Amino acid sequence: MALDGATLEVAPGEVHALVGQNGAGKSTLIKILTGYFRKDSGSVDFSGGPFEVASPRAAQEAGISTIFQEINLVPSRSVTENICLGRETRRFGLLHWAAMHKEAGHLLARFNMKVDVRRPLSDFSTANQQMIAIARAIAFDARLVVMDEPTSSLDERETAVLFDVIGGLKAEGISVVFVSHKLDELYEVCDRVTIMRDGRTVRSCAMTEIDKLELVSTMLGREVSRRDGHATAFDDSRTREPGKQLFRGEGLADGGHVRDVGFALRQNEIVGFAGLLGAGRTETARLIFGAVRAATGRMELDGAPFDPRSPIDAISAGIGYCTEDRKIEGIVPDMSVAENMMLALMPKLARAGILDETRQTEVVAGFIKSLGIKCSGPQQKIRELSGGNQQKVLLGRWLAMSPRLLILDEPTRGIDVGAKAEIQKLVNRLADEGLAVLMISSELEEVLEGADRLYVLREGLTVAELGRAEITEDRVLSAMAHGATEPRPAHV
Amino acid sequence: MSDRRIYAFLDRYATLIALALLILLNLAITPNFLSMQTLNVNLTQVCTIVIVAVGMTLVIATGGIDLSVGSLMAIAGALAPMIFMGKLFGIDSVGLAVAMAIVIAIGVAGVLGAFNGWLIARFGIQPIVATLVLFIAGRGIAQVLTNGNLQVFRVPEFQFIGLGRVFGLPFQVIIMAAIVIAAALMLRRTVFGRQILAVGGNENAAALSGVPVRRVKIAVYAISGLLSGLAGLIVIAINSASDANLVGLGMELDAIAAVAVGGTLLSGGRASIWGTLLGALTIQIVRYTLLANGVPDAAAMVVKAAIIIAAVWLQQKARTA
Question: Please, which residues bridge with residue B165 across strands?
Answer without folding.
Answer: B170
